[in-house]
Model the fold of this input.
Amino acid sequence: MDNLSHLLTKNKAWADQIQKQTPDFFRTLSTQQAPEYLWIGCADSRVPANEIVNLLPGELFVHRNVANLVKHVDMNCLSVLQYAIDVLRVKHIIVCGHYGCGGVRAAIDDRPHGLVDNWIRSVRDIYLKNREVFAALPSDEEKINRLCEMNVISQVYNVCQTTVVQEAWKRGQELAVHGWIYALENGLIKDLEVRISTNEEIDKLEFK
Ligand code: CO
Done:
């Protein structure tokens, strides 16, 4: 059976290269992490968090799942949020979606996709609640991409409403939540300009 030796070889070359450039890099990192950012993104292999913002190991705390969703019953995501905010004390949470997201696409086509349909059901709900927005868009591609943007904004709202974020703000901890979207075609991130750092600002969000 394939033991994936090509990946282990790549790993060795990568570690050697970093070690050569910065001899103390791994030793220092092994004793502490102090990232300033939590990234909540899609599991899509084409949207690798650290690489697209050019950050090194140790600089970005990361949670990824299909269609970058934040749900109040997801202990995995909520535990990541809690550790990032209460222990690492990150200053920024970035929800980063991407155009052409397969999870978002699947949420609005009418074919069954199995188990994942339950996970992405909330994205379909955003679509159904905002039918008039989509009716005005001429192509399926534009509809999907608009829904990708709306989904990011909706997840920013969800992050802000978690008990962890609410408690952080209540005790005066500095913490901002951002909504970004990445384009697979050119590698560029667009800021959706929904930077929320207080409860008052949440009211400005569309697509809750
Ligand atoms: Co995706």
Notes: The longest helix spans residues 140-161. The radius of gyration is 19 Å.
